Amino acid sequence: MTRIKGGVMAQKRRKNVLERAKGYRGVRSKKERYAHEALMRAGRYAFAHRRDKKTDFRQVWIVRLNAAVRENGHKSYSTFIAKLKKTGFMLDRKVLAQFASEHPEVFTRIAKQVV
Questions:
Q1: pTM of whole model > 0.85?
Q2: Are 61 and 91 in contact (CB under 8 A)?
């Protein structure tokens, strides 16, 4: 079998790395080795922060719900959620927070049913 040199594919790979690192500062956008390191690190942060984003949104929903729940006469968010589960409402925090911020009259009706 004849020997195949990898020049074309290596150039393509290097070009792809540098294109993906476009906009990075300094040597990270110019040199292939440093660009590759920066891309690997960026990928790790992107993976981790996709997970963190879910936590951040859940915290925002809880804060909004807590404010709305207290306005509607309940003691706290946690007691409201406990009563909600006990009465059998199958609404998640995202939907409840949307009701609380966008449709307060609907949320008020829900809060009155959960006593």
A1: no
A2: no
Q: How far apart are the first and last CA of the chain?
A: 80
Of 59, 90, 55, nearest to 77 (Cα)?
Answer: 59
In this structure, are residues 97 and 57 in contact, taking their beta carbons and an 8 Å threshold? no
pLDDT tens for 29-40 read: 999 999 999 999
Question: Closest by alpha carbon to 58, among 107, 90, 96?
Answer: 96
Nearest to 62 by CA among 91, 93, 86: 93
Alpha-carbon dihedral angle through residues 89, 94, 110, 68, given to the nearest 10 degrees: 140
Q: Count the neighbouring beta carbons within 10 Å of the beta carbon of residue 80.
A: 21
Name the percent of the chain lying above pLDDT 70: 100
Domains annotated on the chain, with CATH: 8-113 (1.10.1900.20)
Q: Which residues have CB under 8 Å from 77's CB, separation 6+? A: 62, 65, 66, 69
